[in-house]
Design goal:
Blueprint (H helix, E strand, L loop, with lengths): L2 E7 L1 H7 L5 H10 L6 H9 L7 H11 L3 H4 E7 L3 H6 L26
Helix pairs in contact: 2-3
């Protein structure tokens, strides 16, 4: 079965714990570590779940927040639901037709001459 990977980006929560209340404050601290990002880029980094992030930015962000990467990004893996499973939701499960094999047909001829 396919696995579905999801993640939780906890930058905002960790910023609040460290008393960093604005993207500007984070921008200044990242700049001290050699990462030059615009205010809008830092705001997107904080407000949205990033799809891609460079290791340099990730390392600097972890250093600013005083955490390890696994504290900043929490991953979860689960079995992927098929479209069929998503469509039926919590209703009674339908049988999976892939579990059934076709039955060979038997052709019978009628040889009676009436």
């Amino acid at each position: 079965m396919k696995r579905e990977i999801t993640y939780t980006w906890r930058a905002r929560e960790l910023m609040a714990r460290n008393g960093i209340n604005s993207a500007q404050a984070l921008t200044d601290q990242l700049r001290e570590r050699g990462i030059t990002l615009s205010r809008s880029q830092v705001w997107r980094l904080v407000a949205q779940d990033p799809e891609r992030i460079s290791f340099a930015v990730l390392g600097a962000l972890c250093d600013v927040l005083g955490v390890e990467p696994n504290e900043l990004i929490v991953f979860a893996a689960s079995d992927a639901r098929t479209l069929r499973q998503k469509a039926i939701g919590n209703a009674a499960p339908l049988p999976d037709l892939r579990d059934y094999r076709p039955v060979r047909a038997r052709i019978v001829t009628d040889d009676t001459d009436d």
